[in-house]
Automatic annotation (TrEMBL):
It is found in: Cell junction, Tight junction; Cell membrane. Belongs to the claudin family. It is a multi-pass membrane protein. GO terms for molecular function: structural molecule activity. This is Claudin. The keyword Endoplasmic reticulum does not apply. It comes from the Eukaryota. Claudins function as major constituents of the tight junction complexes that regulate the permeability of epithelia. Residues 1-28 form the signal peptide. Keywords: Cell junction, Cell membrane, Membrane, Signal, Tight junction, Transmembrane, Transmembrane helix. Coiled coil: none annotated. It holds the Pfam family PMP22_Claudin. The chain crosses the membrane at residues 118-140, 162-187. The gene is Cldn16_0.
Amino acid sequence: MSSALQMTALGLTLLSTLFLLLATCTDCWMVNADDSLEVSHKCRGLWRECVTNMQDGVRTCDQYDSILADHPVKIVVTRTLMITADLLAGLALATLVLGLDCIKFLKEDPCVKLRMCYGAGVTLGFGSILGLVGSVWYAVDVYVERATLVSHNIFLGVHYDFGWSCWLGMAGSTGCFVASVLLTCCLY
């Protein structure tokens, strides 16, 4: 039972960490269309903004000036939280791999291996909370930005949606949280 639970947690951790990394690196956190004819499709991310022409499929991207330049708070906070979540999930994944029963590392001391799995679960828990806060922070800020424009009767012809990177961040964080629960609560 313990080995099956460890392998399930490992698979979920691996997939969730991949989702978190993809969410951090990709550039489609917020999607909007510039007009009602949907001639172009714009994605804003943490690192750049890309516009895709829907007629010919040409995509152009503008990098943000510098990582140290003044950016909106939502970008800075989301970058920080997502990078920290990525690092914690990667550390937890490495610790979990070393703590698995099927790995020969520290085979003579199963109590230490169990503590390593528990430590990986706690680290994953912290990483999942940071990733979820970062993803939800960005999503709420996008919603508030749009609601502010609508409440001031500013018609821009722009419809904001959460991009697939935002959803990947939320899914990866949730998966890390479930793996954390498996490792910390169910493994004993």
